[in-house]
């Protein structure tokens, strides 16, 4: 699992095509980061976990019992 945290807020940002959020100040560096995340995911077979994607969160196991939500 690759935790993208705030580098990729939601799956829509990941694309393709990748879509930068309005808060991104350096789009060239951001696109480079996205491609690095994409390359790592493809090379390792890892799943990208987005920082704030409610649809994805509903598909993930977030804890055991009532310990985590």
From TrEMBL:
This is Glyoxylase-like metal-dependent hydrolase (Beta-lactamase superfamily II).
């Amino acid at each position: 699992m690759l935790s993208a945290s705030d580098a990729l807020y939601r799956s829509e940002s990941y694309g393709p095509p990748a879509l930068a959020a309005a808060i991104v100040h350096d789009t060239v560096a951001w696109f480079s980061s996205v491609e690095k995340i994409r390359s790592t995911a493809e090379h390792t077979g890892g799943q990208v976990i987005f920082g704030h994607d409610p649809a994805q969160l509903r598909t993930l196991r977030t804890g055991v019992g009532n310990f985590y939500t």
